[in-house]
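Dear colleague,

Thank you for sharing your sequence with our group. We've completed the structure prediction you requested, and as agreed, I am returning the results in plain text so they can be pasted directly into your records. Please verify that the sequence below matches your submission; if there's any discrepancy, let me know and we will rerun it promptly.
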Amino acid sequence: MTVREPKPPWLKVRFPAGPNYERLRGLMRDQALHTVCEEARCPNIGDCWNRGTATFMILGDTCTRSCGFCAVATGRPGAIDHGEPARVALAIQRMGLRHAVITSVNRDDTPDGGAGIFAETIRWTRRLNPETTVEVLIPDFKGNWDALAAVCRAEPEILNHNTETVPRLYRQVRPQARYEQSLELLRRAKALDPGTLTKSGVMAGLGETRDELLAVVADLAAQGVDVLTIGQYLRPSPRHLEVARYWRPDEFAELKEAALAMGFSHVEAGPLVRSSYHAEEQAGHAADGRGAPRLRHTVAPEDVIPLSPPNR
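Please find the predicted structure tokens below.
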């Protein structure tokens, strides 16, 4: 059964506009950067951009996979842009971010799935922004654990990998991924670097039952995941999977309570919750309970680059 009625009132958001929104859009165009906010048509783009936050999407704007829920373009990506990490770091510097979120398309066309560019982006961000904490939302790298280790060696404060849905729906939702592989990635990430906070997210409204969703939450808790996000799936276009139903705000509140009882450090659950929505606050609550992300590293003064990186 699919949903035919209009979106409920708790899912209606204002059209994105405002001076900060326009400033960030101009900055992204000037640096030839992409954001998942735009490419995935996130409903929170107006709120986040006007608060001065954005989620950078590296490795181009074309994904090698065809997930049934995602609005990012699918096809044959262009060449890897090795100047991109420095430009992302410069944009973070210009925005004055205390917490930066970096994600990517899937790059199954490359041997390491883009892990090297993830690591270099973290390192460039540290050089230009020594007080900024870094969160990465990574793909599964097709189970290439050497690629995962390369990202972990760069020591992001938060390593996120979304499980997205329940195992029964993987064939429709994530046809080129495996549920068990995503769980293994999260387990290995924690083992490789116990100092990194691990994070994952799932969607509601694709046809899963409450019991199935809670089983996924329990599986994530068993992998030692620290931070969990649960949000409503919204169909980005008629060619994507239909919404099976809209979960009510009180149902999300119940899911949050159940997840916290399983041992997560922090849980965000609500109709408009997305992986990187209010990510800085999520990181802070999970790290020290005071709302401020905790730096895991000390950048030596000689490693800090106070000026802009070379032109691309």
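Summary note from our side: The beta strands are 34-35, 55-58, 62-63, 73-74, 99-104, 133-137, 158-160, 197-204, 227-232, 266-270.

Kind regards,
the structure core
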